[in-house]
Design brief:
Length: about 130
């Protein structure tokens, strides 16, 4: 479970909440584990008896707040947007052209001008190009 959690894109709001929680709880540094900086998280936990990690957590919460989502994603998600997954752009004209070509192939198959094998081969080629 922990491995799958660490592989997920990091959410800026969760990082901010964890950093803010570190200012008032003895578990300062949990946000560092969340954003993929476990060594810093250990340092924060080792310094739990001092006010240093609590102040640093507060400063980092403000720092996370001041950065926009793109900066956060670039720094902690390798540039991958955590909330929006970009779908590949679909050109309606291209989809329409491919649909027309498949209909034409089907018409040729029904008229017996091409075999079932040729139809399936050409159809797959057209659909592969669409992706």
């Amino acid at each position: 479970m922990l491995g799958s959690l660490l592989g997920q894109p990091k959410n800026q709001k969760i990082a901010i909440l964890l950093a803010l929680a570190g200012t008032v709880t003895p578990f300062a540094g949990l946000h560092k584990f969340y954003v993929g900086q476990p060594l810093w998280g250990i340092v924060y936990l080792l310094l739990f008896a001092t006010p240093i990690p609590h102040v640093a957590s507060g400063v980092e919460a403000v720092w996370y707040l001041l950065h926009d989502r793109a900066d956060f994603d670039l720094r902690f998600n390798g540039g991958v947007n955590s909330l929006e997954r970009r779908e590949p752009e679909i050109d309606p004209n291209r989809v329409s052209a491919i649909a027309s070509a498949v209909r034409e192939l089907d018409r040729l198959r029904q008229e017996g001008l091409i075999s079932e094998y040729e139809f399936e081969e050409k159809r797959r080629q057209l659909l592969d190009r669409a992706l």
